[in-house]
Amino acid sequence: MTNKSYLYAFSVLTAVLWSLEGAGFWTVTQTGFFTLLLYLHKVTLKRAFIFVFVMVCVFLWCEITASPVSSLNGNSEVLEGKVVTDPVLIRDQYRFQLKTISGERVMVYVETPVPGLHHGSACAMKGTYKKPGPVYHTYGFDYALYLERQGVFWTFYTDTSDQIVCEARTSVKQSLLHYRNKGIEGIRELGVKKGDPHTAAVMQALVFGERGDLPEDHRAAYQVIGVSHLLAVSGLHVGLVVLMILFLLKRSGFTKETATNTVFILLPVYIIIAGGAPSVVRASLMVMFAIAALKMSGKVKPSDSIVGVFIVLLLFDPSYIYQLGFQLSFLTSFVLITSGKILEQGETGISILFRVTLLAQVVSLPIILNQFYQFSLLSLPFNLLFIPFISIFVLPVSIAAVLFLPVFPLLSELLFNVISNPLGWLHNLMFFLNDLTLFRLHTGKISSEFMAVLMAVTVLLFRAWERRALIQLIFLTLCFCGLIGFKMLAPYYTKYGTVTMLDVGQGDAILIELPRREKVYLIDTGGVVTWGDEKEFQGPGQRVILPHLAAKGITQIDKLILTHGHTDHIGETCVLSHNIKINRVLYPSGEMLSDLEKEVQACLHYKGIPIVEAKEGVWWEAGENRFRVISPSGSEASENNRSIVLLARMGKEDWLFTGDIEEEAESRIVRDYPGLKADVLKVPHHGSSSSSTSEFVELVNPAIGIIPVGRNNRFQHPGSEVVERFREMGTDIYRTDIHGDVTIRFHQSGGGVEVITVVTE
């Protein structure tokens, strides 16, 4: 390969995208970029023909090896095959992939531990096939697409251990995975014994690439602060391990050749022990690639090495391009390897470390913003602090502690203590600074087009930096920052507002975002509502509302309107108040007496959030928009009829949000507001037959009715007669159980609305 070998990587990437994505945005963009590179490098016609030939071959390879359709029909109750991934316990289910006799992969879920269930086991089981469901949330994770990209079209569920029989089969890989699991368990027990599970969780991540024991808040803090890559077994870790092995072997009297041969043999073992993440596979294969080249009396450049590994991995499994770890690992490594001229400008070790960190941060930022919607200004200084601390101190000590644990447990405990306190101090500093939202910049989710522009500016910026073109460097830096600033400020200049009925299951959560982001209101929070033995490990606050707010770049709620005190309306208030700024809460007239209401009250008081009593007559304005509470009157007997009913004028439309009012409250509203009309109605009480009386529906006469309701709910909401009643009135009905999130977009002064659903009928 020549020093332009990366063109081969781009040709392979282009072919893979054409095969997997078709003529999508990234395919066309990548093709255009690759063509531009060929032009800039003045590639000869003969060479261009070679690249095209490579693309055609790779495209055909992807087409031949892909599994675009399933050979299963889902009617059988039996599944047999070989376990091809390590079973992982997530919440209370074991999850793994099983390859059937016909070669198709199925994602299996098992409720209870099964003897003999390991990677490589042959298993037969009874259960139920299910198709992965569609995504119901605007910014939700598309699990079906995620599995499909791995060639998995079905999931399979077994309820009890007697429905599955596994025969363990011994293999080298299984033995290594067994050792890995024992090591993870050993560190976990050590952490429990020392009363410091957090340090144990970090050690598991660094040595075995296992993050399952990391608390969610720790994981989030590492992610927001921009140092989560340190908890993955990365190329840096692989390099340190290789150096440690070489040092020990040489000190033990082995020759250089024997030492490198040993490293070559041990690296595949290390890939398995370290969890097989893309970063460790990439780095290990690059080292093996370099050793193999040396053995053949050749010398391979790092850029050629990473290109070779990139091509091999994509040919092995083209779906790797969808893995975030694969993208970040290859992108940052490639930039660092090819940025020699920038790194050479550093005259001291600290200066070089600064440049390495800055390059990695900037090049990964577009992907980070697309995935996590925010970044921290503390990311750069924390990386400068964390990288040496973790790599030079915590990682070697952790490896030593793991190695000594089976034979010298007391020495392992001593090593555990050595890193426990410093790691705890650093964590405390990180959490303290992470809580200071001043340093966080929220862009919301960025589009593919915006991401491509940001990447293009990044390339030009690095080019200017490399050539020391100061004026261009300043200009492009300003462009880069200006683009991010534009994305952050864009919502404050739009004349469109939105009302989004979030799919929180059986419950209400309606987000109102006024034009120019004048104000942000949330009506109700949903709550954890389960049926029978069904389990919920995370409520809709964490699963739905907070991710949606983050994707929109919303950092505070001006008014949280809690319509009444039932779980499906206020159940996630504490979760939200803990995670996002809330300026004020409106609560219906009357005392907060139930246990849940007292809990909510305590959370709000703890956060210093004022609770304002809302009843008929309360009103306010926000810009050109008006809001008026028309119920409760304060004399309602039932909790449902106590609901806050909010009449709003937003844009040119009238909107009516009704909580869970029933016939009693509706009759009073019909009597007291004979001229009431609404273009959009939040149908009362999830469409229950106890609400939406004929008189109320005829009075309001909405063009659009929205019903927040859970799929397969035991109340059988909405009532068929209620839905029919609205249809007879010509009302268009949108339901969260069918359509998922429903967003209604309105113009501040233009009139008319646009309804956007995640799922279309």
Low-confidence stretches: none
Gross geometry = globular
Characterize the quaternary organization of these chains. single chain
In whole angstroms, the N-to-C terminal distance is 52 Å
Strand content: 15-25%
Mean pLDDT: 90
**Major beta-sheet overview:** 8 strands, mixed
Rg (C-alpha, Å)? 29 Å
Helix content: 40-55%
**How many alpha or pi helices?**
26
Which structural class fits the helix and strand makeup? alpha/beta
Total number of strands: 27
Give an overview in words.
By secondary structure, the chain is an alpha/beta fold. Helices cover 49% and strands 16% of the residues. It is built from 26 helices and 27 strands. Strands 1, 2, 3, 4, 5, 6, 7 and 8 form an 8-stranded mixed β-sheet that branches. The protein has an 8-stranded mixed β-sheet with strand order 18-17-15-13-12-11-26-27. Strands 19-20-21-22-23-24-25 form a 7-stranded mixed β-sheet. The longest helix is centred in the middle third of the chain and has 27 residues, at 409-435. It is globular.
Give the structure's gist in a few sentences:
Helix content is 49%, strand content 16%. The protein has 26 helices and 27 strands.
